[in-house]
Amino acid sequence: MRTDCWGKKGRKEGGGGGRGRRGGEIGKEKKSEVMGKKEKRKERKKMKRKQLKRKERKKMKRKQFRRVIAEKEREDEERKMNDPKEQRRAKEMEEEERLRMERERKWLEGMERKRKEEEEEERRKALEEKSLRDCR
Q1: pTM for the whole thing?
Q2: Cβ neighbours, 10 Å, residue 101
Q3: Which DSSP state fits 118?
């Protein structure tokens, strides 16, 4: 057996540190680097799979939540449609909307009529001025 510079005993040069078949420190580092790269690749793939699965689970959970909310809204709407008070309120709202649209239509027609009258008045004035100029 040989001793290294610190006085420790080892089997052969290159020292295995007393670890048997695994070889020296240099070889161990290379193996750990190689295994590290492979393990890192596997770990990345595993993480990607985990992330994808988690993403899918979250997506399905959101989808289920939206489905439940939509179902509740449909049930609520159906309940409202069967309620006589709600039906009466809906009819009143429709009637109010119809009356509002009718008022708006009449107002727009009035404004259009007024605009046309003003344009006609301007034309008459322009014709009168032109005829007065021609007479002079």
Answers
A1: 0.38
A2: 10
A3: H
